[in-house]
Amino acid sequence: MQRWADESKQRLTSAPDNFGVFVDMIHLKPLPPDAQEILTEGQKLYKEKGMVRSVVIVNSTILKM
Question: Residues near 42 by Cβ (< 8 Å), separated by ≥ 6?
């Protein structure tokens, strides 16, 4: 998760003013609390940098929550 957050910070420096994302989380297993925190902070960063919509694909009710 930390690598994803670091890569996101780097790539978002050249993001357009408004953008959307498509996230495939079909194979993701439930995350431990420390990874959930990194994910939440990363989502905030995306919103701050201009994300206006997102689509997240999951195959688990637990991940959906």
Answer: 1, 4, 5, 8
Q: Is 15 helix (H, G, I), strand (E, B) or coil?
A: coil
Q: Which residues pair with 22 in a beta bridge?
A: 55
Instruction: Report domain extents, the chain.
Output: 2-64
pTM: predicted TM-score of the whole model, two decimal places: 0.84
Quick check: 51 and 21 in contact, CB under 8 A? Answer: yes
pLDDT tens per residue, range 5-55: 999 999 999 999 999 999 999 998 889 999 999 999 999 999 999 999 999
